[in-house]
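Researcher: We plan to redesign the surface later, but first we want a full-length starting point. Tokens attached.
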């Protein structure tokens, strides 16, 4: 039986953060009931991609899934658990925003089978949090973190960002020390991407905010060293885990394995096809509730594109891409398919070739997009 993973998108947030371009709306939580009913219908409509497969991971992301009543999350997970083969040891994650969880919600999540929580902190500095429009302070975060722990969540991930307005290297290092004391199992740390259509992007155009790439890179280098000292394994460009706690769900994306996306704008990759859902809320709810298809676009991927994606997603992993995995999947050799590209990147010290695999070099980590670009041919 084939495996698959499930991504569930919950597009609601209390407030929109100034840097964020994820598909989410603030102040629309009253639509949560209609949205959930649409999502439950979509599960039926997409069952052919889910039935007869073992569900290894479920990821409830957003938006802020914890901003809606927990009964909606219960309904979605209950439908997946009763209708499909969710593995007993499946990793089931929910994204949470500090300040939106309490004892009742966490207990409900645990009852629904959730065993991993990804908590968005972004910065330990209250002034920075305020300036990017976060709805919580560092103290709120610590309260949420401790509550999750005390109620029994054994796998917590923390999201941090680098290069934010008002963030400096010293404070960032101090912040890391605070986090190390908490001993989360997993950390995701993202360099700020200035997304068009965000408040922060507008602030950068008007000169109110200037993104300093050098400071952001300094933070990244410090981060790698400091986390290694505390036993964290750097396993993907932006991700670090204590042994045994890598995100199994995200590994599905980087290994180009199958997953089914449910909800507004959600993307899927299944049986070598990529497809995604409608991204307009009203249309999504109306169509799904009339049992009409909500998929907007299906692309059967050509072999060439599959190989490219396997390479540039796989190279995000610090362990890189193993020759034998590529051969098993495509019945051809990486060195034959990409000999010129690999040679060029090794010469430029961006890629390393060691015992049966290729991986980003330390320098390559800073220029990953340039490396990935080499594998995409017109
Ligand atoms: C869907 S959001 C997180 C969930 C939750 N709503 C929260 O904010 O706590 C996923 C993560 O992506 C990261 N992120 C969002 N926008 C980003 C951007 N423009 N640049 C870099 N990282 C970003 C943040 O670290 C965020 O926690
Ligand atoms: S970072 Fe999280 S809380 Fe902020 S707007 Fe994006 S999804 Fe919502």
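Model: Full-length starting sequence:
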């Amino acid at each position: 039986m084939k495996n698959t993973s499930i991504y569930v998108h919950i597009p609601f947030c209390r407030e929109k953060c100034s840097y964020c371009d994820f598909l989410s709306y603030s102040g629309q939580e009253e639509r949560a009931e209609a949205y959930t009913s649409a999502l439950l219908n979509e599960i039926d409509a997409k069952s052919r991609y889910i039935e007869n497969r073992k569900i290894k991971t479920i990821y409830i992301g957003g938006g802020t899934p914890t901003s809606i009543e927990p009964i909606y999350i219960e309904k979605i997970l209950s439908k997946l658990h009763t209708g499909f083969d969710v593995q007993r040891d499946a990793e089931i994650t929910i994204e949470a925003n500090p300040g939106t969880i309490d004892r009742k919600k966490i207990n409900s999540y645990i009852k629904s089978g959730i065993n991993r929580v990804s908590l968005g902190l972004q910065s330990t500095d209250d002034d920075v949090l305020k300036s990017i429009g976060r709805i919580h302070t560092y103290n709120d975060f610590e309260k949420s973190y401790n509550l999750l722990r005390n109620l029994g969540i054994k796998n917590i991930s923390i999201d941090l960002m680098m290069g934010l307005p008002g963030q400096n290297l010293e404070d960032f290092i101090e912040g890391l020390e605070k986090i190390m004391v908490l001993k989360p199992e997993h950390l995701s740390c993202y360099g700020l991407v200035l997304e068009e259509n965000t408040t922060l992007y507008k602030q950068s155009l008007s000169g109110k905010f200037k993104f300093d790439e050098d400071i952001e890179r300094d933070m990244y280098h410090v981060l790698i060293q400091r986390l290694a000292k505390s036993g964290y394994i750097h396993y993907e460009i932006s991700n670090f885990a204590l042994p045994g706690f890598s995100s199994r769900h995200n590994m599905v994306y980087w290994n180009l394995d199958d997953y089914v996306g449910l909800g507004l704008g959600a993307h899927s990759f299944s049986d070598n096809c990529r497809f995604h859902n409608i991204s307009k809320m009203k249309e999504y709810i109306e169509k799904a509730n009339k049992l009409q298809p909500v998929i907007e676009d299906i692309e059967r991927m050509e072999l060439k594109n599959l190989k490219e994606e396997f390479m540039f997603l796989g190279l995000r992993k610090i362990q890189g891409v193993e020759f034998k995995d590529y051969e098993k999947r495509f019945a051809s050799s990486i060195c034959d398919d990409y000999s010129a590209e690999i040679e060029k990147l090794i010469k430029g010290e961006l890629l390393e070739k060691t015992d049966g695999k290729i991986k980003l070099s330390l320098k390559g980590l800073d220029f990953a997009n340039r490396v990935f670009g080499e594998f995409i041919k017109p």
